[in-house]
Amino acid sequence: MTISLEQAQTIVAAGLAEGRKLGLKPISIAVLDPGGHLVAFAREDGSSNLRPQIATAKASGALALGVSSRVIGEMAIDRPTFINAAAGLNPAGIVPAAGGVLVRDGQAKVIGAVGVTGDHSDNDEACALAGIAAAGLSA
């Protein structure tokens, strides 16, 4: 099972809506399938030019290590050399900051990941979680 285009588009739309509701800075959202391939992406007007890569790296890092990018950030405090090495091995990179969340189906199987960037990391994560919930999926 993999995340569908319809689910990914719902995640993007709901994540962007959450960002507007919270009055956040312009955000970018990437949704990846379990293999790390881009399924859907949006970059709000005014987003800085590195945001697509950061959003993708947050999601890709979560898939690569099997935990949220928030947990990766916590791991980086204790094991910075490991996270730096892993980031170099992962083609899309790894960003050790909240905003990258695994997406699970009804059986808790990972079917993809979402990466959000543009505001404070906690807010980025809130947008990712809102998008996942709107698609009827879980983190």
Looking at this protein, list some descriptive labels.
17% strand; alpha+beta; globular; 139 residues; 4 strands; 48% helix; 5 helices; four-stranded antiparallel beta sheet
Give the averaged pLDDT, no decimals: 97
Form type = globular
| Gap between N and C termini | 16 Å
> Based on helices, strands and strand pairing, what is the structural class?
alpha+beta
Low-confidence stretches: none
How much β-strand is present in the residues?
15-25%
Question: Total number of β-strand segments?
Answer: 4
Return Rg in Å. 13 Å
The level of helicity is: 40-55%
Largest sheet: 4 strands, antiparallel
Quickly count the helices.
Answer: 5
Give the strand order of the largest sheet, numbering strands 1, 2, ... along the chain: 2-1-4-3
The succession of helices and strands, N to C, reads: HEEHHHEEH
Please give a structural write-up:
Helix content is 48%, strand content 17%. It contains five helices and four strands. The protein is α+β, with helices and mostly antiparallel strands. It has helices at 5-22, 51-65, 69-78, 80-89, 121-134; strands spanning 28-32, 38-43, 100-104, 110-117. The longest helix is centred in the N-terminal third of the chain and has 18 residues, at 5-22. The chain is globular and about 35 Å long.
Helix-strand blueprint:
Blueprint: H1 5-22, E1 28-32, E2 38-43, H2 51-65, H3 69-78, H4 80-89, E3 100-104, E4 110-117, H5 121-134
Task: Give the structure's gist in a few sentences.
By secondary structure, this protein is of the alpha+beta class.
